[in-house]
Amino acid sequence: MPDKPSPKPPAPARTAYLVLGMHRSGTSALANVLALAGASLPREVMPADSHNARGYFEPWRIAVFNDRRLAAAGTSWDDPFSGLAPAPADEADWREEARTLFRSEFGRKGRPLLKDPRVSVLSGLWRQVLEAEGLAVRVLIPVRHPLAVAGSLASRDRFPPRKSVMLWCAYMLAAEAASRDLPRAFVDYDALLDDWRPQIAGAEAQLGEPLPALTPAAGRKIDAFLSTELRRNAPGGDLAALGEVGEMAARVLDWLRAAARGATPDRKPLDQASAWLARQQALYGDLVSPVSADRAVARTALADAEGRAAWLERTLKETQAIVERLEGLVPVTEDLRRQVRSLETRLKASQAAVREAAGRLESLVEPG
Predict the structure, then answer these.
(1) Residue 87 has what DSSP assignment?
(2) Which whole-number Å values give the CA distances from 364 to 33, 118, 160, 290, 292, in the listed order?
(3) Which of 12, 157, 252, 310 is 20 to 30 A (C-alpha) from 110?
């Protein structure tokens, strides 16, 4: 009798790397370290700007989607209570749109890397998307001093320190709560800049597996990328000067730093901080939540316009390069030349949309 055919080997498991945490806390730097070590960035990443010259390493279309989803719940990324907002009635539709976006950005990549701080406060939606895609999830959370984050937000958004530190608490609490049942690693941001190798080795130990392609060549690329130039704000400060907000943040920071060292501290300080945040929402949520709604919408429009302009500019350059290579070898078709002209026209219109969106946002930012 003929031998039975050998069973097909199981398809390799797909693992999503999820970078959670507060805006301006090192999520971009950590995301690129993971990308250089083998994780897959999305198809369309948010372009660099004056606030993050080395890049954000996050999918701009997903960031825009997340802003829209937050707005649908009556909140925004810079609302300290965004993570406590109930899901809108049409959450199933949002979830399907998120899944379509994820597939568009990552396809069937085996190690997709999703980094957008807003996912921290929208974890319920995105966890369902990743599970529906059959992905195992590994979470990495950078830990940066909240006053350093506040300094960065003061420079970029003119936020007062108390608001920024409260936001930091909200995002870090949301990131921790969302990842309790997942393999995860906390990474000290300042230590990462000082010497990334022991920090990443510690993260691999916490995750229970090595990064997929942390080769010597990848290590040299990480060396070239990471530097203290990324540390634009002082790493510490006196949280006690901020009163109750600072006291809560100090407790959360102590817990996170202990977790980054590989300890398993008692979650009581986090539970206390979460209860405190819920009390603040009950007292002030209706006053705080609407404050920045218009600015959030304007930021979303600007991010969308910038992302489209960056994609068009890159596509135009690639198409022009093709035309230049073909010149003198074969006749360049009129269809290809028409495509170049169309891209030039669309790019000009998109650049005008960026200027318009930037002007709209600038008009909504309060004077310092």
Answers:
(1) P
(2) 35, 21, 16, 14, 9
(3) 310
Cα separation, 226 vs 267, in Å, equals: 32
Reference 305, options 248, 250, 357, 252; nearest CA is 357
Q: How far apart are CA 99 and CA 84, in angstroms?
A: 23
Q: What is d(CA 171, CA 121) in angstroms, rounded to the nearest whole number? A: 7
Task: Look at 41 and 286; give whichever has higher pLDDT.
Answer: 41
| Strand arrangement of the beta sheet that strand 136-143 belongs to | 113-115, 15-19, 136-143, 184-188
DSSP string for residues in 9-42: PPPPPPEEEEE-S-TTSSHHHHHHHHHHTTPBPP
Q: Is-contact 345 328, C-beta < 8 A?
A: no
pLDDT at 110 over 50: yes
Mean pLDDT of the chain, nearest integer: 85
Look at residue 300 and tell me whether its pLDDT is greater than 90: no
Q: Please, are residues 128 and 219 in contact by the beta-carbon 8 Å criterion?
A: no
Return d(Cα 2, Cα 210) in angstroms, integer.
Answer: 42
* Better-scored residue on pLDDT, 84 or 299: 84
Say what the pLDDT of residue 157 is. 82
In the predicted structure, residue 124 carries a pLDDT above the cut 50? yes
What is the number of other CB atoms lying within 10 angstroms of the CB of residue 339?
16
> DSSP states of 99-130 as a string?
HHHHHHHHTT-SSBEEE-GGGGGGHHHHHHHH
Strands 136-143 and 184-188, bridge-based pairing: parallel
Question: Tokens 């597996």 identify what position?
Answer: 209
**Confidence check: pLDDT of 142 > 90:** yes
Cα end-to-end span (Å), the chain = 84
In contact, 9 and 138? CB cutoff 8 Å? no
Residue type, 155: S
